[in-house]
Amino acid sequence: MDQTPQNKEDYFQLVPRCYTEMVDLPVIEIDGINHQSRRTIIVEDIANACKTYGFFQIVNHGIPQKVLDGALSTASSFFELPTNEKMKYRSDDVKSPVRYGTSLKDNAKYRRVVLKHYANPLDKYIALWPDNPHDYREKMSEYAKATQKLGVSLMGIITEGLGLGPEYKSDKMVKGVQAIMVNSYPPNPAAAQPDLELGLPPHSDCSCLSIVLQGSRGLQIQDSDGIWRDVSYVKGALVVNIGDCVEVMSNGVYKSVVHRVKILSNNFTRISIASLHSSALDEKVEVAEELVDDEKRPKGYKESTFNDFLNFISRNDISEGNYFIDTLRLVQSFVVPK
Ligand SMILES: O=C(O)CCC(=O)C(=O)O
Ligand SMILES: [Fe+2]
Q1: Helix axes 136-161, 36-52, angle to 10 degrees
Q2: For atom 8 of ligand 1, which residue has the closest CA?
Q3: Residues 230, 165: contact at Cβ < 8 Å?
Q4: How many structural domains comprise the chain?
Q5: Residue 81 CA, ligand 2 centroid: distance in Å
Q6: What ipTM was predicted for this assembly?
Q7: Is residue 201 part of a domain?
Q8: Is residue 198 part of a domain?
Q9: Secretion signal: which residues (predicted)?
Q10: Using CA atoms, how far apart are residues 16 and 241, in angstroms rounded to an integer?
Q11: Residues with beta carbon inside 6 Å of ligand 1?
């Protein structure tokens, strides 16, 4: 893959700017997934990435650059709208299908502005999305449709890699929740120590898997020694991470790794779009029986639903290190230090 910077902005994105070490995430080409010989390699590469990092990047994923750029650009335009226009979508209800939230006014430790909306099935939700900017629904729905299709396909690759077969979760993902988190992380000119500014606190995703489009660098993941490492920005790539539901389903073979967002720039706003894919709100998430061995790997997690997670986050402040998945653990010896 050609990573030669085409212009100054791309060059800037590729040059490490802070003291944090980069994490050498695999960048996996996923074209040819329906050809058996290619599929075998991709399944193996993704299985290795899930075991080692819980994160990987994908390229040649079939989503045109124009669709990625369109989604980032309309997201950016949304955040530039006057406050009263954005506040129309404000809600304190974590279950609201469309929800705008900002922590900036509270002088909070974490500086993220977010528009969250459900996207699957699209027909049910699109009329609730912002219609300003005028191209928001068009551009974001192109991106949402493409990532939903990709999410189902990636889940098939993941379950195949676990020995559960490609169809193990397909129906559940097709009918499942797709929550799009449109994130904006503005710089804080008043920060006493800009290097310490965080956009998003450490958390793991409640999803089965998440697909993240980065507009620029800033995402960091915590390795098993507790060290934060930068995820590189690769133009056109999508970052994929395992969420809590897959950690549970895999009986801890794959980890839902803790990550956060750092504010790396003093002069521009970072945009990212995370598409979180999981089964339906009241669908049971449980350990796959096939991955339980009473002696070598006993069942490590209680069952739950996505609704349980939403109830948990409405009652707990996740920025205080409260992780939903910790409430599900049965076998402490399999816990990877967070
Ligand atoms: O902004 C990012 O890169 C990651 C966002 C994220 O982790 C999330 O929305 O759950
Ligand atoms: Fe996340």
Answers
A1: 90
A2: 274
A3: no
A4: 1
A5: 25
A6: 0.99
A7: yes
A8: yes
A9: none
A10: 22
A11: 181, 183, 200, 205, 212, 214, 219, 259, 261, 272, 274
pLDDT digits (tens, 9 = 90+) for 114-143: 999 999 999 999 999 999 999 999 999 999
Over residues 239-245, mean pLDDT? 97
- Rounded CA-CA distance 26/338 in Å is 21
Distance 82 CA to ligand 1 centre (A): 24
Residues facing residue 228 across a β-bridge: 222
Examine residue 13 and state whether it is found in any structural domain, yes or no: no
Ligand 1 atom nearest residue 270's Cα: 1
Mutate to test the pocket of ligand 1, among 209, 272, 275, 278 (most ligand atoms within 8 A of CB): 272
- pLDDT tens-place string over residues 68-83: 999 999 999 999 999 9
CATH code of the domain containing 262 = 2.60.120.330
**Distance of CA 232 from the midpoint of ligand 1 (Å):** 14
Residue 335 lies in a domain: no
Domain coverage including residue 225:
19-281
Query: Which pTM was predicted?
Result: 0.91
